[in-house]
Amino acid sequence: MSGSTSTTSRLSVMSMAASLPSVGGYTSAASSMYSKRTTTTNILERHLNKTRGNEVSVNAFAFLFSEMLQYTQKRVHGIQDLERKLNELGYRVGIRALDLLVWRDKNSKRETRVLGMLYFIHTTVWKTMFGKQADSLEKSTENEDEYMISDNDPIVSKFISVPKDVSQLNCGAFMAGIVEAIMDGCQFPSRVTAHTVPIDGYPLRTTILIKLDKDVLEREEQLK
Amino acid sequence: MIFSIYIINKAGGLVYNKDYSEGLSKLTSNEYLVLAGTFHGVHAITSKISPVPGSSGIEMLETDTFRIHCFQTLTGTKFLLVADPQQPSIDHTMRKIYEVYSDYCVKNPFQNPEMPIRSEQFDVHLLKLVKSVGGLVVNSNITTSSNPYIVSGAVNTGNTGVSASTASGTGGTNSALQSQTGGVSSQPASQPTITSGPSS
After folding, report:
1. Could you read off the pLDDT of A165-196 as tens digits, one per residue?
2. How much is the ipTM here?
3. At the topology level of CATH, where does B2-136 sit?
4. Record keywords: Transport included (chain B) (predicted)?
5. Closest CA relative to residue A205, chosen from A192, A215, A213, A194
6. Distance in Å, alpha carbon of B127 to nearest chain A alpha carbon
7. CB pair distance less than 8 Å for B109 and A1
8. Shortest Cα distance, chain A CAs vs residue B128, angstroms
């Protein structure tokens, strides 16, 4: 088994990190009662642009995500509903992540073309959220308005085995929500869904399908 | 060589069992449950009857042909590892099993705690782990040879004869095991010796 399963691998800062006090934050708060404030600063007082050492443990995220799923599962009827709800949760993360990314990007510009936008998601967003680039960015051959971003080993479903009776469920719906929020926030309204497309050696491979709205395509035509 | 892995929940119920060697004599599913429950009880008793206070329960049960290693987590879940007496670095293997368990069972939102484990990724990663420590026997010849897993009753001498010939045919890793089972047949009652935990 790969050694990366537990303590070593880390998840890059998601916007969640801003509201989650890290372990270091707790110790400093507790010890400050007895001694002078130590070198670890409160997470709210850290500079937003400093990403080094601010990663969240994959395990901590896995437990949080697991609880999110269990919580959601109790409050929905059917798998469709569950995926929609996960998508909503992802949307809330994505909209905040976009804010943070734009703030951090030194020479950021506003993306006006679809391809530039998708490339931004494929590289920058994925790298910030999951610590690696997405594995592929493709355009659908059948439909003009569909694009696909694939991740061979998505971090959100790393520890999750979906049982047979809900086999259609893809926990990547959460990632789809993030992507949808970022597309929305950049004025590329679209419908984003997640699908499991296993290939050899990557049973968890997930494809994020982005279906652009009609007016986005019309605008794209004018810009050509 | 690792023969089987069982996982017992804190109430003494069997939540997972898997065999990793061919030719093991099977129990019925009810007998597996009884085995788990009995072990759970014996484990509790051994920790109670210890003359030294604060002793852990049974940690290893040894016979001529196999050992059952037990590892109890802080939450009371027990991992039983049935292995060859010569199997090295059991502690490390146990830790790894615990790691796989906490990754793919505890973090899996569809896995209820204390319930039978149905997690595809857990199966896959446990199998990978067992293979990596040399647990899985791919050789199908072993099915005909005498079974190192038989606890009760003597091993048939005729059977041992057959297995000796297959062992010479296949050679290599199996021969040690075969000669050992031969030893059992000469002294049929392989008395289990119980080793209790550290008394400090």
Report:
1. 888 888 999 999 999 999 999 999 999 999 99
2. 0.74
3. Beta-Lactamase (3.30.450)
4. yes
5. A194
6. 9
7. no
8. 6
